[in-house]
């Protein structure tokens, strides 16, 4: 009943819950796109090299908002209402971790510290988005075009995450290591709180739409709270680090068929020098039914471990 895969399928295959989640994504992409373009115009002269890419990502996010809006056509004529308590981006902004947004709305020029805070703000949000989208990218969508749209947004968010990290590394190389670690830690912990609050609100609305029992809702909400505690107590010590980011997972391609084991055994028998130790080892692998060089390959890990309430 509570397997992650089954839960994701139940939520995404229902028109009402899919409409809610897709509307949330549209609102977030549109908001982030507008603000990235406006902030790019206010970047100080010393960091103008960041402005073109920032504006480009803003335009890309607005395009994704239009792309996701097209997916809502089968669920209703209009996107679902996005109340403030389920809007992750709005909750994160209200935490006050990114002063660039306040200055942007007032039309004030930004300082270099504001630009750094904006990079950390984007890094925290994009890290969460890529982890969740990586899980969705492997989902078998029943809606035409949904899988392609998710994978396109996933690739863009991953690229944006790498760009934010590279921008922060530029500040660190310029001698602002302490400032980078501080602002990254502040934004990471603020994002964890915003994610918890938004996830609980989304679960409550989704449970109402799908008719979940009280017991099921309580268990799922407990999972969200447990993840938040984990992020506060365990992941906190890593929040301000600038270690190399792990490779973000791609949808796994279909495995190519390996060589037939039969011809390899025939070749080994025809070779008069097949009695060496090395070739005997290969023969053992072939006898077990696996092709040489593939019998001991480790399986790949899961794509992501995020909560479906992201």
Describe the structure.
The structure is a single chain. The protein is mainly α. Helices cover 65% and strands 0% of the residues. It contains eleven helices and no strands. It is globular.
Note the topology:
Blueprint lengths: L3 H10 L1 H26 L10 H21 L16 H7 L4 H8 L5 H26 L8 H28 L3 H34 L3 H20 L27 H10 L6 H11 L23
Helix pairs in contact: 2-3, 2-8, 3-7, 4-8, 6-7, 6-8, 7-8, 8-9, 10-11
Summarize the structure.
With 310 residues, the chain is mostly helical.
Largest sheet: none
The N- to C-terminal Cα distance equals 19 Å
Oligomerization status of the protein chains: single chain
Report the strand count: 0
Number of helices, where a helix is a run of at least 4 consecutive DSSP H or I residues: 11
Mean pLDDT across the residues is 75
Low-confidence segments: 243-310
- The structural class is mainly alpha
Order of helices and strands: HHHHHHHHHHH
Task: Give the overall silhouette.
Answer: globular
Which percent range describes the beta-strand content?
under 5%
Fraction of residues in helix: 55-70%
Q: How many whole angstroms does the radius of gyration measure?
A: 24 Å
